[in-house]
Design goal:
11 strands; alpha/beta; seven-stranded mixed sheet
């Protein structure tokens, strides 16, 4: 069940008297800066000025501030999923206004009226005889954020430290300066401004029954910034599960994980996604239906998040990814210096989808401590490569190997050399398809060919070069092209890895100019190609190279498959 209504600021914030607003622990810290604060204040002021200038007492114009998505948690609080920046800023603005109004020496009924309107939307209790306030209507429990207490202090006391650089203090002080400027320049408009903020500025709260529902709505509606991630929620769940003596160390380890993830161009949420497949494999789950990671980890009250090995396993996945992505050697991990393994991981990284990642990660997590890991891992990677290539050749769709991969994941947890055969494919049909593989496989098959020839890794940046140009190349006029099938020009025999695209002008000596560039390449395979083909490159050469590459890759299929024992 979901509740949606439109309220003015006063009506909305007053709901916090019965159900206080909470910025939950899994949210990111308050981050609005000067630009957002000035924009909010000026927008509200321009709206007030524009409406007041109409001199129409019956005007019903309103200013819409946006939606706020929340749910009522078990403590009876409005747990904010989206809108914490706007709500927090509103509280700071109203506190700045209240503080200024309290300083006026000559007070009228109008001052008292405005103060009495603001008080119940800032605090639950005001003890006027003591000049004290209790129970501010918003609190923040963002993990490891010292600003939580700063916000509470500002709303209670209306003052900040003399030297403060946190966002709450800076923005509160900025609101004070902006409002002071309005009071000085146009005291009459100041009263209208406060009224318009309270009564003519609208918010649309969307309240759901559960955190899950609120997060789903937020994911659908959010278009302004980075959406709240599942990993933020996981972080909060783990943090709150720990005792006080463990929390600081956890924050340190989480920060280290985040930095390592950024280093390998991943985020923590994606690492949790990979880890989910590992846990599913341990449970013997090979179902092809994949649920979202929040739903998966929330089962049994998030019990899987509280496993003592979780952070260690996530760290291990990132270690593996440092080898895959950055070609980085790991301390005390001889396998990570094995060039053959690095090359196979590089080949797999060019597979058209990410299904290859799950068995590789699972194999590493399960067997990395085995004395035979290095030798068996290399054979496993080779066997996995040819099975993935073979299946994609026959059925070039994203989901073609999904069922096989999920079954393999489970088998990996049982054996050091699990069976890696998704379906039996006749070699003759594979040979035919290798001559003209799906474009999505060109990079992967070229890597297989190159790494069978050279020890050196390919450079980080290279492109697939078409050696013999197509008809679309301006200025290239070769009568042989008229008799050549486009399939030949697109075949693997006419492709080569190269550091950069050729930018030479097409002419009769087109290949000779290309050959000079190839000879300067830092890729040994490309230099060798240019050395062998000295004078020309024509249709017959494409046909011969097509057959040669096809035969070489087929030999790898037979060799790597025959070498794999299970």
């Amino acid at each position: 069940m979901m509740k949606i209504e439109q309220l003015n600021v006063k009506q909305f914030l007053e709901t916090g008297r019965e159900e206080p607003f909470l910025v939950p622990d899994y949210q990111r810290p308050y981050s609005w800066g000067e630009e957002e604060i000035v924009t909010l204040f000026n927008d509200l002021l321009l709206f007030t000025e524009g409406d007041v200038s109409k001199k129409n007492k019956n005007s019903n114009d309103t200013y819409f501030l946006g939606t706020v998505i929340s749910f009522k948690n078990e403590n009876g609080e409005q747990e904010i999923i989206d809108g914490q920046q706007r709500i927090t800023s509103l509280f700071l603005l109203l506190r700045a206004i209240y503080t200024k109004l309290k300083t006026f020496s000559k007070k009228t009924n109008l001052y008292d009226e405005l103060l009495s309107e603001i008080e119940p939307i800032l605090w639950k209790n005001v003890i006027k005889s003591e000049g004290a306030v209790k129970n501010v209507l918003i609190s923040s429990s963002v993990i490891n954020d010292e600003g939580n207490n700063i916000l509470k202090g500002i709303l209670e006391n209306g003052v900040t430290k003399e030297v403060a650089n946190d966002r709450y203090s800076l923005n509160y002080t900025l609101f004070q300066r902006l409002f002071d400027g309005l009071v000085y320049e146009n005291p009459g408009l100041m009263f209208e401004f406060v009224r318009y903020v309270l009564n003519r500025t609208l918010i649309c709260p969307i309240i759901t029954e559960s955190q899950e529902g609120a997060l789903n709505i937020f994911s659908t509606l959010n278009t302004r910034g980075m959406p709240l991630s599942e990993s933020d929620i996981f972080k909060a769940k783990i943090y709150n599960f720990l005792d006080d003596s463990q929390k600081n160390r956890f924050i340190e380890r989480w920060k280290e994980l985040t930095e390592k993830a950024e280093y390998v161009n991943e985020d923590i949420q994606q690492i949790f996604y990979y880890y989910m497949f590992y846990l599913r494999a341990l449970d013997g789950d090979s179902a092809t239906t994949t649920i979202g990671i929040r739903k998966y980890f929330s089962q049994n009250n998030f019990a899987k998040l509280f496993n003592k090995s979780l952070l260690k396993d996530l760290n291990s996945i990132l270690d593996l990814w440092a080898v895959v992505v950055k070609k980085q050697s790991l301390e005390n991990a001889k396998w990570s210096k094995n060039n053959q393994i690095i090359k196979m991981l590089d080949v797999l990284s060019s597979y058209p989808n990410e299904f290859w990642k799950y068995p590789v990660i699972i194999y590493y997590l399960v067997h990395k401590e085995n004395p035979e890991f290095e030798k068996r891992f290399l054979k496993f990677l080779k066997k996995l490569t040819i099975e993935l290539v073979a299946n994609y050749l026959v059925k070039p769709t994203v989901l073609a190997v999904k069922a096989g991969i999920l079954k393999l994941n489970v088998e990996i947890t049982k054996k050091l050399s699990p069976p890696v055969t998704f379906q039996n494919l006749p070699l003759d049909s594979l040979k035919t398809k290798l001559r003209l593989p799906s474009k999505n496989l060109f990079k992967m098959t070229l890597k297989m060919m190159v790494y069978n020839f050279q020890e050196e890794l390919l450079p980080d940046k290279w492109e697939i070069e078409q050696i013999y140009p197509s008809k679309s190349v301006e200025g290239f006029n070769d009568e042989a092209l008229e008799t050549v099938s486009k399939d030949y020009l697109d075949s693997i025999g006419n492709k080569i890895p190269f550091e950069k695209r050729s930018t030479i002008k097409a002419s009769k000596d087109y290949f000779q100019k290309k050959r000079i560039l190839y000879l300067r390449s830092q890729i040994p395979y490309v230099k060798e190609f240019a050395t062998k083909h000295v004078t020309h490159w024509n249709v017959d050469d494409i046909k011969k190279r097509n057959e040669f590459i096809t035969e070489e890759i087929m030999r790898l299929f037979i060799s790597w498959s025959g070498d794999y024992e299970f």
